[in-house]
Amino acid sequence: MKILVTGGAGYIGSITVKELLKKGYEVVVYDNLVYGHKEAVSCPLIIGDLLDNEFLNKSLENENFDAVIHFAALALSGESMRNPSVYFQNNIQGGLNLLELMRKKNVGSIVFSSTCAIYGTPDKFPVDETSEKKPESVYGESKLMFEKVLYWYDKIYNIKHINLRYFNAAGASLDATLGESHKPETHIIPVAISVALGKSTQFELYGNDYDTPDGTCIRDYIHVEDLATAHILALDRLAKTRQSDSFNLGTGKGYSNKEIIEMVKKISGVDFLVVVKERRFGDPPIIYANNQKVIQELEFNYRNSDLETIVKSAWEWHKNSKY
Fold first, then answer.
1. Contact (CB, 8 A) for 16 and 8
2. Which of 57, 189, 233, 260 could join 298 in a cystine, given CB atoms 3.0 to 4.6 angstroms apart?
3. Are 110 and 67 in contact (CB under 8 A)?
4. How sure is the predictor about 184, in pLDDT bands with cuts at 50, 70 and 90?
């Protein structure tokens, strides 16, 4: 199978591409390199933006694909509240341009990189695929809106999709060749590692008075290589069943911010300074996934998603990061 991967030079995208190539898939990456890294791509790369519809169609005019994995999106909740038009345009119009290309070229399957942000602050735990969708950011809303677009493109054009709703992607490739590098970086593990490496003087912990066992927020983390495996299983599922569906991708349990910090200290051997700051607006105290559907229906296993493996892999990559 030949797969088009949009956003394939980014964190999750590049590691998924690596796994696809290992499995024998032919892959073409389409990425604007705003957040992606050319060095992370080891297959044909087309540098372009999904919003440039003319270039998108021209650059892929002579390419034929069996399926698409769509990662390309803006993904910072706080930024989306400051620049809503940019998020709606990029995450919806860019996706629409991609779907129209698929329609013209008769590509009938797409795996969509969605998010648990579509659920907002849940009323019950764990969060399953039928839980109420009530996003609390433009980012979450834009992802939910595109899931609805996919629903209608299935009904009207028979383009089948699987929505993979990530909780928190974390870690790096186990061979330490690919990892997470954002500017600015907002994710807790790379931020804490940056402090441990001496790139920052202190770690800022936003809130320690939540209604949780240690007072800090609890989140569900999944190793990025496990995420990559899930995308390949989703591709296989679409090829075999031709049925659209949605799956949560989380481990079904959470780790607190304090647990994350302590694990980074343990792996790095550095007892860095932690300074408690005010809570951030919109941070729910706890969120974790009901993952039974993906385990049962995709026969998915969480091989690398224990906290120590996640942090150790990230640490090994960040120590020698080339980008």
1. yes
2. 233
3. yes
4. confident
Model pTM above 0.85: yes
234-237, long-range: CB < 8 A, 24+ apart: 234/111, 234/162, 234/164, 234/298, 235/1, 235/3, 235/67, 235/69, 235/109, 235/111, 237/162, 237/297, 237/298
- Strand 221-223 and strand 168-170: the pairing is parallel
Residues in the chain: 323
Asked whether the bond before 184 is cis by omega within 30 degrees of 0, the reply is yes
Q: What is the largest CA-CA distance in the chain?
A: 57
Amino acid 311: pLDDT: 98
Q: Do you find a cis peptide bond into 84, omega within 30 degrees of 0?
A: no
pLDDT in tens, 206-263: 999 999 999 999 999 999 999 999 999 999 999 999 999 999 999 999 999 999 999 9
d(CA 153, CA 310): 36
Which positions are annotated as active-site residues?
Answer: 139
Question: How far is CA 125 from each of CA 72, 128, 129, 232, 294, rounded to the nearest angstrom?
Answer: 29, 8, 12, 28, 17
282, pLDDT greater than 80: no
Structural domains in the chain, CATH included, are 2-170+220-249 (3.40.50.720), 188-219+252-290+303-319 (3.90.25.10)
DSSP run (H or E) holding 266 = helix 257-268
Beta strands in 159-299 (DSSP E): 160-166, 168-170, 203-206, 218-219, 221-223, 245-249, 255-256, 274-277, 286-287
- Structure confidence at residue 281 (pLDDT): 76
